[in-house]
Amino acid sequence: MRIYILGAGSIGSLFGALLSKIGEDVTLIGREEHVEAINNRGLKVVGVEEFTVCPKAVTKIPSELPDLIILATKSYSTAYALECAKESIGENTWVLSIQNGLG
């Protein structure tokens, strides 16, 4: 499954790492400093288990249509993130919000 995660902060990176670990095709889309850190060092998860994965990380949404877009931005960035992603949302693309601050 091709998965784009909009927002490479703590929540987006955690979900990206977990999905990468089970073999999903994950691309994290984030700010330049986060993308650079992920590309240089990967994502290290420490908790019940500890692992490091190296998912793709970019600053611009790829042109290929994904199967799933996970929205992991701050809630105040929702409209902007979806506007940026609108060309990547196909007829069969699912969009899932895992944002903080929606309640």
TrEMBL record:
Concerning Pfam families, the annotation shows:
ApbA (PF02558)
Q: Which SUPFAM superfamilies match?
A: NAD(P)-binding Rossmann-fold domains (SSF51735)
GO cellular component labels: cytoplasm
Q: List UniProt keywords, sorted A-Z.
A: NADP, Oxidoreductase
> What's an example of a GO molecular-function annotation for this chain?
NADP binding
Task: Spell out the PANTHER family in the cross-references.
Answer: 2-DEHYDROPANTOATE 2-REDUCTASE, 2-DEHYDROPANTOATE 2-REDUCTASE-RELATED
What is this protein's name? Ketopantoate reductase family protein
Question: From which organism does this entry originate?
Answer: Thermococcus litoralis
